[in-house]
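PROTOCOL LOG
Step 1. Enter all chains and additional molecules of the complex.
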Amino acid sequence: MVKPTKVTNRIRALRFAAGEVTQAELAERIGVTRQTVIAIEQGRYSPSLEVAFQIARALDVPLDDVFQYPGTDQQPPRHPAPEGTASRPGPVTPNTGRTP
Amino acid sequence: MSYDEKRAWIYAAIAASLPAVYFVTILRQLATTDATEIAYIRPMLAAIGAAMVLNIVLSIGAALFSAEDHNKTDERDTSINLYGEYRAGVVLGVAMVVPFGLTLAGADHFWIAQGMYLAFVLSALASSLMKIGVYRRGF
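Step 2. Run joint prediction.
Step 3. Record the structure below.
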């Protein structure tokens, strides 16, 4: 059984924003069939990373504007800080050499 | 519909129709004739040959009527083809257990040949139907 993709996209809106680029024109620019562009737009196919970048480039927008993944499109993922550096030091105050 | 999807439909139609005609023709004779006396080799080879020729002719016809994209196979077509062929291979492997068992049991060549042909037919059907399903539903 094929799992439907969770990746969503805004290709249709971006095509119109980019001067009403047709599906056929976009397909021609990125070297796939029009049916593949339709399938991507309708969420029936997740393209390879290379085609995803080509779509973004053809529409002249960043990749994140074209494709979204549920739960990750709000904020970039946070990586845990390495051991011992969990608490970030506060603002550095100049050492004046004076005692309070 | 892309050219590759049309080809999957053509393959499915051929894989369903020609073997059906063959099996009906041959197995109907079992009512009156012993299996060892049925002349099945020529009809079987004819069915296989006709399927191959028909597949080529109809694929060319589909290309002629697919002015758009008929000579273009992209990454989605390749992925779907791999998906279908992989699962068809599994079907073939499982279906081949029957003729293998018949061979070990010393069954007549007639039944072994029918079993093998049926395994190939099921594999071809599985391949094309899975591809069509993925083309329709998504991948």
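Step 4. Note key features.
Chain B has a mean pLDDT of 91.
Residues 20 and 61 of chain B are 23 Å apart (CA to CA).
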